[in-house]
Amino acid sequence: MNKIHVMNEQLANKIAAGEVVERCSSVVKELVENSIDAKAKRIIVDLINAGIKEIKVTDNGIGMSKDDAELCFLRHATSKIKNDNDLYFINTLGFRGEALPSISAVSNIELKTCEKDMGIKITLSGGKIIKKENCEARIGTIISVKDLFFNTPARLKFLKSEASELTNITNLIEKFALSHPDISFTLSNNNKKIIFTSGSGNLLNTIHEIYNTEISENMVKINGENDDYEIYGYICKPEILRSNKNYMHTIINGRIVKNLEINRIIDDAYYTYKPDGKYPIVVININTDPTLIDVNIHPTKQDIKFSKINSLKELLTKLIKEALYSSLLIPKIENKNNEEFKNDNDVKTDVSVEPLNYNIRQKDIFPENINQVKEEQIEFNFSKSENLEDIKEHAHNETLKKLELYPVGLCLGTYIIAQNDEGIYLIDQHAAQERINYEKYKKSLQSKIKTKTNLLIPITIEMSPSEYLNIKENMNVLLDMGFEVEEFGINTLSFKAHPTWLKKDYEEESIRKILDIIQIKNQDFKPEVFNEKVSKTLACKMSIKANTNLTMEEMENLLAELVTCDNPYNCPHGRPTIITFKIYELEKMFKRVMN
Question: Has residue 592 been placed in a domain?
């Protein structure tokens, strides 16, 4: 008796469902992608009990004929590709022909669709067609998936709570809306509307509809291209960073993807503009020739491979850095209480000042009659002939120079208080000097001319055998920086000269910091990355610490140096160096003005 046999179609579909249909959001993803491929301009997703009881997707797409409606539930039946060559030119979200048969194998389905004069209604249970009949002629498709995993109880018990399933579906619809701003999306659960987007085609307006005014008003547009890629979208200013990567949305040829390499490129581009552990809010559309990418590497089609990733990295990095550099401004502290008071006796005393906030705020849900959001006035374009250095003539430190700040004191041993005719300014003395030192160190390391200071008494540093061998192997790094160093006994180096930019009286400490950085140097050594790390580390360690009292002259000198920086608004770790309280906002807080 043969041991090997061919599985029947139903069993094969149930196994395939294990890859395609993990949870309720997986079903929503596949159905909404089919609606988008069908050129729908309005997609409505109605859930009962977060989709566990029912998922209903209604669209106004091109619909299906009677024959296609029956064929779509057969495994590997698809209208997206016809031959091997089509795999290299995939322009649709779906193409495998596995979604509908996999979903139908583990649920009860009712499909209504129409493309011309007569509609068809098909009812399935566990993958079997139970009933076929004609229905009303409504162009588009309505598909209802009920009792998910009713015939696979082992899978059913692994579904999360209703709240968890609803959260995942909501996040998914948000991503669809951001990737297709020209499509109106509606999501409701138990007849309660959760998401509505207008389908205006305006990406910034969609960002506003999905998130809130705070986010939409702090987004900066990027737009550029090279020979391989076109990039368009919005990135956030450093004021509204988040604590996780869920707000980093990357869309490749209209497909939402989760690509670790792309996220790393975006995160690296924000280097020195944000603290570690904080992540930007971005919605970035990347269009490219389908032959340069491979979307057929995962059943959910959420990951992707690039054949020219370096070209994409160069363009994306320059666009983000250009936009961030050009949009830097001093954060303003505003009074959020805008109520008008009827009389002096009615004055409220619980007025609060909202500080610069890096924490996640609860998203607002916007109504259908949402107003169009005015796009960010500044647009940033980059072509293959441009260089980031060329934009330095637009340095925004001119804004800070024009302020003519006058220091008046120091509070908490940390914050310099300055003023002018516009308001009060608080300057973090450590962050400000850290920015000053960082730019000094970086320019010195990048300079081709290395000036040295000879030491009357050499600095000797003893190391462990492994540390010594590592440093000895990378001795050229120290020599290129301007050090004069030689072996001195067992596992010991003698430094006879050092670069002039090392801070006076902190030479040995600085050298030890540099040696520590060399110890973790990897095989893919890049001088610019190494110089960045050295500049950032030394700038932090050699700057004024908190609770250090400064004289008035020292405060004036610090502000004078800060305005000469290329980016005076953030320390290398992304924290703000200066914030402002405008006179009008102060007067509102003290009730000197009532509107």
Answer: no
